[in-house]
């Protein structure tokens, strides 16, 4: 798990791009079997799902960074 975290911190942009692309493909594959919509509508929905997941992950990473920087310095003062 530590090596995965190190790779993600070293390759942030590639990690976000990979997450977005895999969410897009997963959403397209899921909607292809479940809904009778046109391909263009499926693509729009898949892009929205991928963007929502990416924003959630980026928000989580921002919170993690905030708490690490603010509380790590507070612990060193005590």
TrEMBL record:
Residues 1-76 form the HIG1 domain. The keyword Metal-binding does not apply. Its main location: mitochondrion. It is found in: Mitochondrion. The chain crosses the membrane at residues 12-30. It holds the Pfam family HIG_1_N. GO terms for cellular component: mitochondrion. Keywords: Membrane, Transmembrane, Transmembrane helix. GO terms for biological process: mitochondrial respiratory chain complex IV assembly. This is Uncharacterized protein LOC105057180. It comes from Elaeis guineensis var. tenera (Oil palm). The gene is LOC105057180.
């Amino acid at each position: 798990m530590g090596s995965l975290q190190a790779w993600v911190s070293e390759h942030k942009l590639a990690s976000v791009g990979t997450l977005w692309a895999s969410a897009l493909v997963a959403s397209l594959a899921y909607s292809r079997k479940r809904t009778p919509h046109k391909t263009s509508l499926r693509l729009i929905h898949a892009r929205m799902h991928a963007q929502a997941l990416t924003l959630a992950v980026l928000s989580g990473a921002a919170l993690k960074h905030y708490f690490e920087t603010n509380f790590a310095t507070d612990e060193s003062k005590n």
